[in-house]
Amino acid sequence: MGFLSKLFGNKTSVESLQRAVEQKRYADAVYLADELNNQPLDQESSKLVAQWRATAGDGLARLNLLEGRVKQDSGKLDEANDYFALALQFACSDDVKEEIAQARQLPFEVISTRAPDPGAGCSTCGSADAAHSDRDALADVDDAIHFDLILTSYPENQRERYHHRGKDFVDAFLLAHGGNDVQANELFNNVKETDRDDLYWFEVGALQARMGHLTQAKSSLEQSLQQNPELFLAVEALVQVLLALGQADAARTFVEGKIPAENEDDFSPYHALLVTIHSQRHDWPAAVVHVRHCLQRGYSDPAFIALAAGVMEKVGDIAEAEGLLKRLPSGGGCKSNQINLTLAEFYLRHERELEKVFSSFNAAVKQDPDNPRWRLRLAQACFARKWHKDGLQLLQQLADAPALPAEMEAEVKQLLAHYGNSPQ
To answer: Which InterPro entries match (predicted)?
Structure first.
């Protein structure tokens, strides 16, 4: 079910994490890795995410360590210790943790002249030099490896088929997933007629949807399903396109037609799609029926769990909604005061666990400073804790930000109008 958001390019992917590490955007990479850990991953993908999360964590730790040393060298010990604490929060390898520990105790001059030990580290943790080598190696990733990286976000039972594609298809695929939609579309048009199978029409349909050509996307995805009615990738994508076209009834009829009257145990993903459809129509009782079906059969896709929690909250079953959200990973490492951001938004709506809510959104803002959603949620958490001055400052930052989404801009204006006139 989580593949739905991938259709429009919103889902965090392994290749986006790879690019962040390559570009040494360590804060982004840490955030992306934690987002990926909230998604279902196979063993290979989990290994890659863990490796790059460690590389990014150490990279971010070293940046904070350097800042701390500069502050330490200038005599600003309190500020230095703040940077060292932040560095320790992100550090993964023993080498980096050791450097931080020594920096907190010794003068900068001693630390800066410490000779590196080429034999430091171990085969599982890796030395600092090994981490740099890994990052250098990532910069040399060729198209074949990039292709494999993209496929790690695809259902495992489809990946082998993608490995038997022709060059035009692969080149177009790489361009499409790199955001080069126009060039990708041109290359897809060059693929031979005999090679235009169900996967071809799925990729073309997904590309057309991302480009906003929804009617064309619908036709392409229907062509994919004519060739292979069981291709769930195309089923998900077609549902998303139909909903975007305002054809919720057609989407519901289409999915219901895929579910047999008996032997429904293997059709939970289709019931999850019906939850999505009924939720868009605000038909919460109908959505609950399909939520119950999936939960009774142990369906645990993280995207579905988050959606199911929202449905249960809408019908007033707050306890079950909370229990479902607690199943999602926090993405906050071993820090017990952080919770997953979907649960944090739930608690914020109900004005509960406000200390954890504030801590979680504060960490999200630091890790993803360009995402206005978390800054808005942090402002709301400040208001919930009666910290009006801090909340107003955050709101003003959002009000001054360029290209704020219309819905968020309206929410910011509403909050400013309310709290800007209230006693501080």
So the answer is: TPR-like_helical_dom_sf (IPR011990)
Amino acid type, 165:
R
Alpha carbon distance 158, 154 (integer Å): 7
**353: helix, coil or strand?**
coil
Average pLDDT of the chain, as a whole number: 82
Confidence class for position 395, pLDDT limits 50, 70, 90: very high
Cβ atoms of 221 and 234 within 8 Å: the answer is yes
Count of H-run helices and E-run strands, the chain: 25, 0
CA–CA gap between residue 112 and residue 103 (Å, rounded): 9
105-162 pLDDT tens trace:
643 333 332 333 333 333 334 444 444 444 443 333 457 767 877 887 788 888 889 9
Task: Residue count of the chain, please give it.
Answer: 424
In this structure, how many other beta carbons lie within 10 angstroms of the beta carbon of residue 86?
19
| Beta-carbon-side half-sphere exposure of residue 415 (alpha carbons within 13 Å) | 26
Q: How far apart are CA 58 and CA 30, in angstroms?
A: 10
* Distance between CA atoms of residues 177 and 11, nearest Å: 12
**Rounded to an integer, what is the distance from CA 312 to the centroid of its chain?**
23
| End-to-end Cα separation, the chain, in angstroms | 45
Residues whose CB falls within 8 Å of the CB of residue 167, separated by 6 or more in sequence, listed in order: none
Domains of the chain: 7-138 (no CATH), 166-246 (1.25.40.10), 250-329 (1.25.40), 341-419 (1.25.40)
